[in-house]
Structures are given as C-alpha cells and as structure tokens.
Amino acid sequence: MAHSVKLKAGDSFPAMTATLLDGSSVTLGKPQGEATWQAVFVYRGRHCPLCTKYLNEIESYKQAFADAGVDILAVSGDAKHQLEKHLEKVDISFPIAYGLSEEQMKELGLYISIPRSEQETDHNFAEPGLFVVNEHGNVHVVDISNNPFVRPELGALTRGLSWIRDPNNHYPIRGTLDY
C-alpha cells in the first residue's frame, strides 16, 4: 500500500500555481501586497456547504490576518465553472483560485476524497488544509484534516499568528523533530 507524504513543519513550501477567475496564475505561498506571510486555505469545493460557511468566516477575519502581516489565499480542485457558481454563495474579497490538481494535492500531503455521487461533484477533491508560509517560503503552521468538520478556529488562529509574528516572542516553528 502506498503511503501519502505529509508536508512537515519547517519544510519549504512547494512551488505550485493555481488559476484565478480572471485567468491569471497565482503562486501558492507567495504573499501579495504588504504581507510577508501567506495563509493558504485549501477547501473541498463548491459542493461543500461547510466550505462556503468557512470561506465567509475567513472574510470576517481578513483584518486580523492583515494586522498579523498574513495574506490570505483560498484554493480548491474545482473547475472554473464550479468556482463561478460557488461565488454566488460566498461574499469574499480575498483571492480564491481553482484548478488544484490531484498531483498538487498529493504533494501538499492533503487527504483526498472520491465523490459519493455525480451530484456531489465530478472529480476527486482535497479535504481541508491550511498552510501558513513564512517570509522564507517555509511552512510555519500546517493543519490538515480528513473531513470537513475539523478546521482551525479562526479567532484562535489569528491571535496565535499575531503572537508568533511578534519579534519579542522569539517563537520558532514547532513540530520539526524528525522521526
């Protein structure tokens, strides 16, 4: 049986791109604007009502992320037409990308699910994942789940990121012991 490889804390975040709705390419883990870190939220896709709720919730924490110097990007394995349809249900101002390939999902060490039916979706999809990439391009915080019910609580996450980013705290990347 093949084993999945999980991206570890402290690893270099792999170079990968996805596509924004306007057709432009976006590099995951490369912050935009003033921010020096980026939080990459991988979500399951348009078919998932919990993803819709979580994306809208992320929007309400956008300022807290910005205050911590952390840019936000959301991405899924959906196709362009699925993202267009999904945007009718989400009210967000941060970038959201589509077209994450199954190979990219595996490279990130995400759990991948097979759709239960054609009504759910028409492709295998990633379960939720969060990768916070620091200014050196390394994974500073990683959280992956095998189901849609377990995701970081955004208040705790943004408070934690603010604390980590405070230079007076000298807080290293945690969980780096190799075994």
Overview of this protein structure:
- Helices cover 24% and strands 21% of the residues.
- The chain is of the alpha+beta class.
- It has a seven-stranded mixed beta sheet with strand order 2-1-5-4-3-8-9. A two-stranded antiparallel ribbon has the order 6-7.
- The longest helix is centred in the N-terminal third of the chain and has 12 residues.
- The mean pLDDT is 93.
Layout of secondary structure:
Layout: E1 17-20, E2 25-27, E3 37-42, H1 49-60, H2 62-67, E4 70-75, H3 80-86, E5 96-98, H4 102-107, E6 112-113, E7 125-126, E8 129-133, E9 139-144, H5 154-165
Parallel strand pairs: 3-4, 4-5
Antiparallel strand pairs: 1-2, 1-5, 3-8, 6-7, 8-9
Head-to-tail CA distance between termini: 21 Å
CATH class designation: Alpha Beta
**CATH topology, which one?**
Glutaredoxin
The description of the largest β-sheet is:
7 strands, mixed
Q: What is the helix fraction of residues, given as a range?
A: 10-25%
User: Stretches where pLDDT falls below 50 for ≥5 residues?
Assistant: none
Q: Number of helical runs? A: 5
Number of strands: 9
Beta-strand residue fraction = 15-25%
